[in-house]
Design goal:
Radius of gyration of chain B: 18 Å
CATH superfamily of the largest domain in chain A: Response regulator
Number of strands of chain B: 0
CATH architecture of the largest domain in chain A: 3-Layer(aba) Sandwich
Strand content of chain A: 25-35%
Distance between the termini of chain A: 184 Å
Largest sheet of chain B: none
Shape of chain B: rod-shaped
Largest sheet of chain A: 5 strands, mixed, barrel
Order of helices and strands of chain A: EEHEEEHEEHEHEHEHEHEHHHEEEE
Structural class of chain A: alpha/beta
Helix content of chain B: over 70%
Strand order of the largest sheet of chain A: 3-4-5-7-6
Radius of gyration of chain A: 54 Å
Oligomer: heterodimer
Helix content of chain A: 40-55%
Shape of chain A: rod-shaped
Order of helices and strands of chain B: HH
Largest interface: A-B, 20 and 25 residues
Number of strands of chain A: 16
Amino acid sequence: MKVEAIEVEGRKVYSVRAFNEGVASYLQRLPTLWVEGEVTELRRQQRWATVYLTLKDPDSGACLAAQMPRGQFDALRLDLVDGERVHAYGRPELYTQRGDFHLRVLTIERFGLGAHLAAIERLKQKLAAEGLFAAARKRPLPRIPSLVGLVTGNDAAAKRDVLSAITTRFPPAHVLVAETYVQGPRAAPAIATAIRDLCAHGADVIVLARGGGSFEDLLPFSDERVVRAVAGCSVPVVSAVGHEQDTPLCDLAADVRASTPSVAGRLVVPDLAELRASLDRAHILLGRGARRIVEQHGRRLAGTRERLSRAPLLVLERRSSRLETAHARLRALSPRATLERGYAIVRSGDRLVREPPAAGEQLDVEVARGRFGARAD
Amino acid sequence: MSAQTFEQAQAELEQIVERLERGDVGLEELTKLWERGEELYRRLAAQLADAQGRIEELARRLDAEGAD
């Protein structure tokens, strides 16, 4: 198409219409291709000739308006609803009157199993690279939760299983149940919101429970929004989704994975009877421990007292034996000991005789066992 | 002195006993140390009896509650 410009004061100027038509004709040269996205804002009405929808990139949130003739759309019998993943085949187009850009869709295919598996695998790699599944992130469950949050479908067997396991094991448990969609395109955002709501209500552990289902049924539990909500939850999350062999991504992000909803219920609360018994044991040990410490101190004090009462006598005995020794040594030094050895003390009057006395002098002789008089020759 | 803990009093008493048993104590000091030791003993024994009494009382009360 030839786009005519007009000349204004030496400048080339295009009318809006001419510009739009120029861009539109340029876009027509682009190839027809497949676009992958999530269906949102699907608007289909009987009196409209065109079906309008928006394709959204679930990762980045980028949006693309799309439209398809209603007859062609209906002929596909897809019964598409918002939130479903599709591949749309079409080409870019500009509505020249309004300058609106959209994808002119020729056909739409619902995501197949292979596409889903590939998408989940890509998401798994991405989140693993971010460290969302790292073992170091796993938190221990509270021993006795004050409030258990349960995210589950309304009236689901999973809900009944979790609740009955909890109340059997720990009757005084408080459980707050958030009933949400657990399958279909509305489930993922609803589950993510429910997790956050339960946290806000003070749950200190959250159970995510859903019974078995088809691969498609379990898809929301591998949705990035749910996985991020689980990983980012401020309290530990127990995931019990599907059967043992299913591994939705939320299982990898959860702090604990339970094989069934009943197992999840048993994991989040302690056994009350066991708890009582261990409390009783602790109580008995406490009493015993306290008594034993007092007894130990008592024995030690009694021993010390015993030694204390003996100690002064011991000191006195030692003192008196030292006295006896001194006395003995004193005695040894007295003249009496010398007399015992056969010596005699000779006195004249009260004078000790140290040199030979005059003949006839009256002397007084003291020996060990008495005294007697004598006269000098 | 009243701020002395049970352990401190116990350590002082045991030091006194060890000194007396070593015997290098003057007679005047002997009497003083012995009196101090006896005083410490009385205080420690009273504290122990008190602790024991409280434990027994608590145990009785808990038993009574448990029996209800």
